[in-house]
Amino acid sequence: MRTRGLASWTVLVLFFLYAPLAVLVAFSFNTSRFTVWEGFSFAWYRAALSDPALAEGLWNSLIIALAASAIATIIGTLAAYGIWRRPAPWLAGTIYLSLLTPEIVTGVSLLALFQWSFRFLHLHLGLFTVVAAHVAFSIAYVMIVVSARLREYDRSQEEAAMDLGATEWSAFRRVTLPYLAPAIGAAALLALVVSFDDYVITSLVAGVDSETLPMVVYAMARRGVSPVLNAVSAFIVVVFGALIVVSQRLQER
Amino acid sequence: MKLRFWSLLPARLTGALLLGIPLAVIIAYSLLTRGDYGGVEQPWTLDNWARLADPLYLAIVWRSVWIAGVATLLCAAAGFPVALFIVRSGRWRNVWLQLVLLPFWTSFLIRTYAWIFILRDTGLVNTALTSLGLIHKPLPLLYNDGAVLAGLVYNYLPFFVLPLYATLEKLDTALPEAAADLGATPWRTLRRVTIPLSLPGIIAGSVLVFVPCLGAYLTPDLLGGGKTVMIGNLVQNQFTSARDWPFGSAVSMAVLMLSALSLAAFLRHRTARELL
């Protein structure tokens, strides 16, 4: 196989990967509401900004993503550290297998759990059930990123700190945590994106007062194509892309 | 050692409460009876599992396996040359790899919506073809198996490229070179040396594409319209509009077992090959 053939094929595949998103972004600036280019305009962005459903969805999504990624980052970092100290196959197996569980199954099983527990607790589906569900599936991503950095960490650094009189906890806090900081930052950003993006699980465990941005986007996509939706898409694609690039940079540090 | 115990505790609690117990609840529900108002009731029964053998539902299962299989083959065909090229691209390796992986992180929902925008009757492709005068009425591109396959391949292709790249990267370049020196044509080297040696990567990539495609819900829901029902849509339907949670739970367990089974099958194949 000649390299030139491989290169052309790769460029073709990259075109397949990027063209749909590029087209979406381009047409979000179109004056016309039809798929014919008529001129440049910010009209659909203005329309998106003044849509109350989108604003509420964005707000809910932000609250959920910030809360869920903070909690998942703490739990996942601690778990990665504990597993690095000595393997915990059951825990690691459960959490990593959650990545291969179809989202729809995770969603309905959490829904079943919540509804069953509400027989005893006087609660109903709302923001907190969405946050709990997002924590459940984001931990795996945090653990992957933090574990990767721990693999290159020298145990003797902690041991040296403890030989010099540090307690186990202060060696972790003053030596290990600073070393892990970039990976923890990268993991938190990844968890933020994964949580912000989820539709399938969220739509099942969300209450009437906790509609997220992906739920609003889904409802709009179901009704058909709309230039406002293109504007929202362009916004999400650009913000997500930026966050992920920052996350990757942090992981390379 | 005390710190290790406390650092694992929150994850153990979350894992049990939000991953383990929900599974137990689903298993229990799959053995109960549907209530009058959509809830679950006693008595315990195996009826929900028996209903899975209904030809109507078996057809949906078969359809899901078939679509996931074709999507995996398409990802392999599209992804193998890409991984091969990236490995050979020297110091630009990382840039190419990131370029392939980046779209994966931009919203799954938006990436699927992009295909509605492109394929629908008044979408980009049909508008372009009409204005060029090539067609007079729009081609039915959206809401069929083809659209679902396009969406699945689009969404999961990076999952195939990444593990394959990892395997190819570790591959001893001396071996394909030796084959070439001994007179093998490039094609023959690829078929007899490179592909067999990268089999673990091909298998890992296939699992990572096949399993999520099998349980896909959003892609067939948005791009398949009402026609392309996959097993994930059946689960969703039973839990929402049909409000038959016991049967929905049995279907969920079936999806989960199918996923686990394909995972086990792929992994066994891999070890068998490595032993040979």
Give a brief outline of the structure.
The complex is a heterodimer of chains A (253) and B (276). Chain A has 253 residues and is mostly helical.
Give a written overview of the molecule.
The complex is a heterodimer of chains A (253) and B (276). With 253 residues, chain A is mainly alpha-helical. Chain A is 79% helix and 0% strand. The mean pLDDT of chain A is 89. Chain B has 276 residues and is mainly alpha-helical. Chain B has a single domain, classed as Orthogonal Bundle (MetI-like fold), CATH 1.10.3720. Chain B has a two-stranded antiparallel sheet. At the A-B interface, helix 1, helix 3, helix 4, helix 5 and helix 6 of A face helix 1, helix 3, helix 4, helix 5 and helix 6 of B.
How many helices of chain B in DSSP terms? 13
Helix tally of chain A? 11
**Basic shape of chain B:** globular
The level 1 CATH classification of chain B is Mainly Alpha
**Helicity of chain A, as a percent range:** over 70%
Most extensive interface:
A-B, 80 and 81 residues
The number of distinct structural domains of chain B comes to: 1
Tally of discrete structural domains of chain A: 1
Describe the secondary structure blueprint for this structure.
The complex is a heterodimer of chains A (253) and B (276).
Chain A: H1 3-27, H2 43-49, H3 52-85, H4 89-100, H5 103-117, H6 127-150, H7 155-163, H8 168-197, H9 200-205, H10 213-223, H11 227-252
Helix pairs in contact in A: 1-11, 2-11, 3-6, 3-8, 3-10, 4-6, 6-8, 7-8, 8-11
Chain B: H1 2-30, E1 33-34, E2 40-41, H2 47-51, H3 55-87, H4 93-101, H5 108-119, H6 124-131, H7 145-170, H8 174-181, H9 186-197, H10 199-214, H11 218-223, H12 231-239, H13 245-275
Antiparallel strand pairs in B: 1-2
